[in-house]
Design goal:
- The chain is an all-beta fold.
- The chain has two domains: 31-341, Glycosyl hydrolase domain, family 43 (Tachylectin-2, Chain A); 344-495, Exo-inulinase, domain 1 (Jelly Rolls), CATH 2.60.120.
- Helix content is 1%, strand content 53%.
- It contains one helix and 36 strands.
- The strands form seven sheets. Strands 21-1-2-3-4-36 form a six-stranded mixed sheet, with no helix packed on it. A six-stranded antiparallel sheet has the order 24-35-26-31-32-33, with no helix packed on it.
- A hairpin with a 2-residue loop joins strand 15 (225-242) and strand 16 (245-255).
- Bound molecules: beta-D-fructofuranose (FRU).
- Beta-D-fructofuranose is lined by residues 37-38, 54, 65, 93-94, 120, 160-161, 213-214, 282.
Length: 502
Amino acid sequence: MDLMLTQPNPEGEMDDAIGTEPFRPQYHFTPRRNWVNDPNGLVYFEGEYHLFYQYNPHGMDWGHMSWGHAVSADLVSWRELPVAIPETDQMIFSGSVVVDWENVSGLGEGKAPPLLAFFTAFDEARSIQSQHLAVSHDRGRTFVHYAGNPIIDLDLADFRDPKVFYHAESGAWIMLVALARDHYIQFYRSQNLLDWTLAGSFGPMGSTSGQWECPDLIRLSMDEDPANAHWVLKVDVDVGLVDGGSGAQYFVGQFDGHRFTMDPELSGLSGALVDQGPDFYAAVTWSDLPAEQASPVWIGWQSNHQSGKAYPTYPWRGAMSLPRELYLFPEGEKLKLGQRPLKALTGLRSAERRGVTGSLAAAASQVSFAREKSFWQDISLGGDAGTTGTVSLSDGHETLLTITVAFGGEQISFERHASAFGPVDFFERKTTTRLPLPARIDLQILVDGSLVEIFVNGGRRVYSASLFASDGMSTSIECLTGTLRVERDDLALMQRSIDFSP
Ligand code: FRU
């Protein structure tokens, strides 16, 4: 098969084909062209959800970091806009945006509140990272750099990724920043969003195998007990976490406006994994969500710092995960972070359903569907202790991913296999997670071009990966031991929700 993946075409030549390339996701955001990594500056303002992101306007590899920009009215359909914050003599690294509702910064003009973007400016020549501010008066289309920059400068090489939010209980704006190589998250306070005072820090804790990046601190409650809120501190680690690669860990505790105190009983000392898969990084939550969106929502970069540089997509590289709603749930003595796909995404499901219900009694029985490129499949499996089964995704030739469920063993594992198109280095990965497995397990499998997100038991575990199938994927269910009940196997095609028009 001739996929023409690596032959750059002259600028413009492919415009008509943009959106239809091999591996192109249809309902996960990707830019038309070029390299993308972390989501940045997620904010809702005047009817628009903003998605800024680390972007190289000049090529398909990391570099010239600037803030790309896309907007959505519903977090489902996205339209790419021109670059919002281009690199200057410094690169524009990750950060966040807030609405300065009361113009405490004094940077507002006229009646509309300004949007303030906090980001790390990376001065490559001096090897210094410091925190900068830029302001927008036109709904995030353009930003003006603040004359008093840098707003925080410790003369450090690895000091980055400011996340700002308002902490009503202590009446201050809070900024989290990572001291990446020292494995600390610092907490700064401010009244005017310009002058920041160090209030506390957290770390090192959990995984310190690589650099700490992109912190977020999120107030979450349990579905059953909304009054019982806790704070979750999420920290990404660029190497050595998920099966040796990059990933995110989280801690559960309390935040008093000055410091985050981890609760060892609720959290466990080691830090729990946010996602079991290789491709979910740098997630951050939306600021200023409308009241009807009660739970926090975040999105992550659906790639990783090891194999992501070699993903064979063209003419873009990198993608955003689906927006996920966050919640807490009890598991044994602990509180855990749950993530479920935003409800509004179900609107993309086709009316047509294909379903199977039955029992796979004999070992090695299997069910499969024709190959599709973008689908959502709900599979519920049941079994007594000793029953094991697999659900696999394949491209008709090769198995790309195997999920193995062991009833009684309380264990589920995900194995991404080498494939014809996937990069060679650091691609094959296996992660195993333990979770209470009653007699039934629900898998929501969302496939989209080269991306798959799998939500287990309503998001109590999540697995995100890139898989490179030449022409869509199909699912098969196999019973290895015992009797596997397939209580529901329901597949719907997914419609495109990304506008790729120039
Ligand atoms: C995380 C990260 C951030 C940094 C940005 C640079 O992926 O390394 O720490 O700000 O990417 O693109």
